[in-house]
Design goal:
By secondary structure, the protein is an alpha/beta fold. It has a 5-stranded parallel β-sheet with strand order 2-1-4-3-5. α1 links the parallel β1 and β2.
């Protein structure tokens, strides 16, 4: 199974990239984790619909639509506990789905793209910087895997 994180924004601070790399290397071979960073559309004087359309095109190019489940991170998405995320991960693995987890840009994601996604989840009630979202997501995915694997990383 592949977990592909598609994140709008190509630049992250070194600490965020280091943290991502640290967690990414912990995943087992049967759960391949990938990061696809896509370019943020320059803001300038463009309207929101134009920004959404340009970023959506880049996101869709980074997603393999044939058989890939699309899960968007959205502030209004389903709030999951770590155990619930572990259950989702187990379900995805059981279904044999590759999963694209999509992190939007500064203005979020195109509403139609969000509506077409298979699932919408949220990581927090807090507003988080994009670099932090990547780190939090990869850590929680690793924690979910470790919980399912009976690994002692997760403690209650």
């Amino acid at each position: 199974m592949r977990l592909r994180v598609v994140a709008v924004g190509q630049r992250v601070p070194d600490w965020a990239q280091t943290a991502w790399d640290d967690y990414a290397k912990r995943f087992p071979p049967e759960l391949k984790l990938e990061l696809r960073a896509v370019k943020t559309e320059p803001r300038g004087s463009k309207g929101l619909e134009t920004l959404y359309a340009a970023e959506r095109e880049r996101i869709e190019a980074a997603i393999d639509r044939s058989g890939m489940r699309v899960v968007v991170l959205d502030e209004r998405g389903t709030n999951l506990t770590t155990k619930a995320l572990a259950a989702r991960l187990q379900f995805w693995q059981g279904e044999g789905d590759d999963v694209a987890l999509v992190i939007g840009g500064p203005d979020g994601l195109d509403p139609a793209f969000k509506a077409a996604a298979h699932e919408r989840i949220r990581l927090s009630d807090l507003t988080l910087p994009h670099a932090m979202v990547r780190v939090l997501l990869v850590e929680q995915l690793y924690r979910a895997w470790s919980l399912n694997a009976g690994h002692p990383y997760h403690r209650e």
